[in-house]
TrEMBL record:
Transmembrane segments: 115-137
Organism, scientific name: Marinobacter similis
Residues annotated for substrate binding in this entry: S52, T81, D82
Domain L-asparaginase N-terminal: 2-150
Classification via Gene3D superfamilies: L-asparaginase, N-terminal domain
Keyword Transmembrane set for record: yes
InterPro entries: Asp/glu_Ase-like_sf, Asparaginase/glutaminase-like, L-asparaginase_N, L-asparaginase_N_sf
The name this protein goes by in its record: Asparaginase
Length: 159
């Protein structure tokens, strides 16, 4: 069984015409998994709906506590990309679990999103990787503590 926690971020953003802005909405993750023909072997729990720039140390502590309390040893976490490395670093002290953080550069609701690919890639990664904390984005896996987001290039890279 794979435990999936959702925290918000761009992957779950919705455009609100009335406000002319994007806001974090209900996660499309169950729908995206079904579209990928993944129908069982997981459970989803929403932890929060936040842009990662709004996440606090208390939020990261809540993620850490949820992951620690999970009986599953394989964990996926959807997360905003801006502070994903910070949350990965906060989780790095956990042992005995394979934890993969994923997100998207474009909301899952948009036609040209990388969300579906990233979810499929992370689904495979969490089943194949050794215990540890990782970020899986755009076909690459990075270990916690050795990755940063390159804002200009809109990609993750090793540090």
């Amino acid at each position: 069984m794979i435990q999936i926690f959702t925290t918000g971020g761009t992957i779950d953003k919705v455009y609100f015409d009335a406000n002319s802005q994007f806001e974090v909405g209900t996660s499309l993750l169950p729908e995206l998994l079904a579209e990928s023909n993944i129908h069982d072997g997981y459970r989803v729990q929403e932890l929060m709906r936040k842009d990662s720039l709004e996440m606090t140390d208390a939020d990261r502590q809540a993620v850490l506590e949820a992951v620690s309390a999970s009986e599953c040893d394989r964990i996926l976490i959807t997360h905003g990309t801006d502070t994903m490395p910070d949350t990965a670093a906060a989780l790095a002290k956990l042992e005995g679990k394979t934890i993969v953080l994923i997100g998207a550069m474009q909301p899952a609701r948009m036609r040209r999103t990388d969300a579906l690919f990233n979810i499929g890639f992370a689904w495979s990664a969490v089943q194949l990787l050794a215990p540890g904390v990782y970020i899986a984005m755009n076909g690459e896996v990075f270990e916690a503590g050795s990755v940063r987001k390159n804002l200009k290039a809109q990609r993750f890279e090793r540090t």
